[in-house]
Amino acid sequence: MSDILLVVFAVVFVLGVAINIHEFGHFAVARLLGMRVEAFSFFGIGPRIWGFKRGHTDYRISAIPLGAYVKLYGDEATAPLEGGESEGEKVPDEELYELRPRWQKFLVMLGGPFMNIVLALAIPFATALWFGVPSVPAPIVGSVVQGGAAQQAGLKPGDRIVEFDGIKDPTWTQVMENALLLPGMETPIVVEREGKRVRMAITPGEIVNNGNKLGDLQMEPDAGVQAVVIGRIQEGMPAAESDLAVGDRITSVNGQTVRNIEEMQRIVKDSKGEPISLVVNRNGETREVSTRAEKTEQGYLIGIAFESGTLEPVGFVGATTHAFNENWRILRLTGKAFGQMFAGERSVKEGGIAGPVGIVQIIATIVRDVGIGGLFYILMVISLNLGIFNLLPIPLLDGGQIAVLGIEAVLAMFGLTLSVAVKEKIQLAGLAIILLLMVVVLYFDISRLIG
């Protein structure tokens, strides 16, 4: 029961923060420009269920659980979706949204996506400034899985990857992330071996994670020597049934000394469920612990998470660079996945598009495997995607309303205007599109869950 409550809390936290920071962006810009805000719905659209009033603004919870919204006096185009038209006292013309110049309306619409992007940048910036940034292993092959994709391609320990899928001088992270989107696809790779460059092709193996087909190169980097310390033990897995404890430093597995986390993971996966003998150091005392690996979607695992690898301290400039790089990495991979779908190289079902069920699944998995701290990363990803998605020119979204402002500007050149009735029809059409998209992603969520 406590696990269910934890997941509910995690979902409410992530989605609540991402959605409300978006609406706060609209609210803040409107108030900054002197517009009067009629309502701020923290949850849902449509008729008001509950709320309280402060000043001229009604802070409320609404009936239809589709996000949240900010309602400005004078903006009646979305009134049918937001619980009716404005009523009550006469509002001064200078505080009405509808009578403001278009550039001010544009800024109000832009405020929501802007705040989502700011939040997405702020999370990695703050963590980098406070904790440091993880050291990224050099693109040098440390080990390959017997019979795996890397070995079949001819890769050997010690090879330095100098080009992968057209990317020159990639980091190890870039190689692994690009491979995720290339399952079963022959991919060019260039390695440096004994001072010479060797061209070859590698076909990433296929793994399935939460119903999504992903690519796996089946090799590990040469991470050097690093402490292998247990940071978390997953309930219901073999490690929880053994004598392992958080803080244990693993020194050897099945008699083999482990230099880093990657070596530890490789030995566990190669065990294929056979008994595993671990030697751990606990508070200066050496102990031998027996356990086994259980087969999961990610391969054979014993159910432990490790403490973060080496973190390198950075200053303001380094943290800023890290924040932009993290967000650009997410955008690039998302764009590449969508490009593959439109090109027919990847089905929509395998494209990683997550609806309500999929998002809850992802959040639940992160809470289970990483803990509460992992929610900030998924919050960054969702906030960034929410900000970018809302800029699409779909009616009802901010991008659609910005497009309407552009249409109005063009019509104004010819002395024409869009009536409120037309704007209402545009918004209702947008609602229909959004509902259709939700039905589609919900279908793929459920089909992946059943599959």
Topology (elements, then pairings):
Layout: H1 2-32, E1 37-43, E2 45-54, E3 57-64, E4 69-72, H2 102-131, E5 133-134, E6 141-144, H3 149-153, E7 160-164, E8 167-168, H4 172-180, E9 187-193, E10 196-202, E11 205-209, E12 212-216, E13 219-221, E14 230-233, H5 238-241, E15 249-253, E16 256-257, H6 261-270, E17 275-282, E18 285-292, E19 294-296, E20 299-301, E21 304-306, E22 311-312, H7 316-342, H8 356-369, H9 375-389, H10 398-412, H11 420-450
Parallel strand pairs: 1-3
Antiparallel strand pairs: 1-4, 2-3, 5-22, 6-13, 7-8, 7-9, 9-10, 11-12, 14-21, 15-16, 15-17, 17-18, 19-20
Please, could you describe this protein's structure?
The protein is α+β, with helices and mostly antiparallel strands and 451 residues long. Among the domains are: 141-220, Pdz3 Domain, CATH 2.30.42.10; 230-306, PDZ domain (Pdz3 Domain, Roll), CATH 2.30.42.10. The chain is 42% helix and 24% strand. It is built from eleven helices and 22 strands. The protein has helices at 2-32, 102-131, 149-153, 172-180, 238-241, 261-270, 316-342, 356-369, 375-389, 398-412, 420-450; strands at 37-43, 45-54, 57-64, 69-72, 133-134, 141-144, 160-164, 167-168, 187-193, 196-202, 205-209, 212-216, 219-221, 230-233, 249-253, 256-257, 275-282, 285-292, 294-296, 299-301, 304-306, 311-312. It has a four-stranded mixed sheet with strand order 2-3-1-4, covered by helices on one side. Strands 8-7-9-10 form a four-stranded antiparallel sheet. A four-stranded antiparallel sheet has the order 16-15-17-18. The model has no long low-confidence stretch (mean pLDDT 83).
